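Standup notes
- DV: blocked on the single-chain target, sequence here:
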Amino acid sequence: MEKINVCTAQHGYEVLIGHGLLKEAGRLSGDGAGKKAAIVTDSKVGPLYAEPLDTALRDAGWATCLFVFRQGERSKNMNTLGRLLEFLAANRLTRTDTVFALGGGVTGDLAGFAASVYLRGIPCVQLPTTLLAAIDSSIGGKTAVNLRAGKNLAGTFWQPERVICDCDTFRTLGADTLADGLAEAVKYAVIRDRELYDILMRGDFLADAERCVARCAAIKADIVSRDERDSGERLLLNFGHTAGHAIEKASGFSIPHGRAVAIGMAVAARAADRLGLSAGNCADPLVEALEKYGLPHKSPYDAETMARIALTDKKRSGANIRLALPRTIGESFLYELPVENLAAFFRAGEG
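- DV (later): unblocked, structure below
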């Protein structure tokens, strides 16, 4: 089992990565005697993993209850959040009890947000079951739901008590869902880790899942430890997300997050190359990695549409928007762009 320590002002915690950890989740979460565990999951993950988690928690003394919502990004909204909060209240959870987020990024965001505001904050344990959630959204304490105006516009920073990543859950992922996670792995490689890029290009990411997931988790933990609240260096983790979030929303969330980010990274890298902002050719090796894993790199929407939607994004700061761009494969930087130039930037990144 791999252990990654995350140090934040709120509190430190461990990211545990290994095989068979779901059945050990009760032991890994401490003595549950006299405590309640609210398992939050979706309609796809619940039938697969809710029962073994429930058993593991009960064996450790927890009293459990289960909240299941309809699978998909469209459920990450204020209505589902309200139903979850009413569920926690109806089951009389207290500040000594814990929310267990079992699933992908939508579940982690929704359950984490609910935990952060219920009784002004109760503990949350993240149990990611997708590669994307394991290497990205379960770590760092960002929680959110979507508003009609855009993605993740209502949320909090609420660090989990721990993250328990059972790599065995990746075996039930479809090829498309797995590829969504690999898009985020490519992101980590491009912004911070040339060796990880080489591992991905050899095609052996899942052949050594623990080590590779730990490598991504360590990058995020390192960045989050220095910039917990997304005011500086942590913005590098948004590489590909400015255009990506716009693409997600324009598609009515029919284009999944990983694919949208893949396109957004390609747009940003091509623009950085063509506008002389990178130190060399970043776009070609990035596109090569995306194609290797069957990920798209051309936007179905024009630059003006993406810019209009992107300017409702929380990454905008007054008259400017900060973009994460690659300098080389393995190194990145933040670039401040006037909002009126965003459409031209996206046009420069067209494939």
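- Follow-up: The first strand starts at residue 2 and ends at 6.
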